[in-house]
Amino acid sequence: MLNLHLHPICVHFPIVGTTGSFFVPIIALLIPSIAATLFHVVTLVTMILPALVILGGISGYIGSKLRFKTATAKYPKQKIYLTIIYFIISCIQSYMTIAHSVNAENAWIMIILGIIGSIFAAKLGKMGSYLFAGRFSPYTAG
Hints:
- By secondary structure, the protein is mostly helical.
- 79% of the residues lie in helices and 0% in strands.
- It has helices at 6-10, 12-30, 35-68, 74-100, 107-133.
- The radius of gyration is 16 Å and the shape is elongated.
């Protein structure tokens, strides 16, 4: 499973979704002629985002258990807590989409939630790169 790098592959899906959840509404607000289509794209992405975050979290937990023989060490435990917060943010985005759809009136709420989710995703990725290759390896240098 580690040879296939399941977790690093799985986490790209929620990262792209989260980034798209704030970047695409910005484009929609700037280019009103294609806004309706772009808002539909954001609606689709945010509806499946919690499932993608769960996929990344579960694959990370499995990878941690295989690599470190535990998921309760300091950094894996911190990643679990950050993932839970990231999941909650994605659920809020999904609920907002299901309840109200994404449109020009609520686009800024989605943008703000997307930025917050992206910050958590970036923090998780940075911590993961240290765990994946070691804190001072060439993989994380620079």
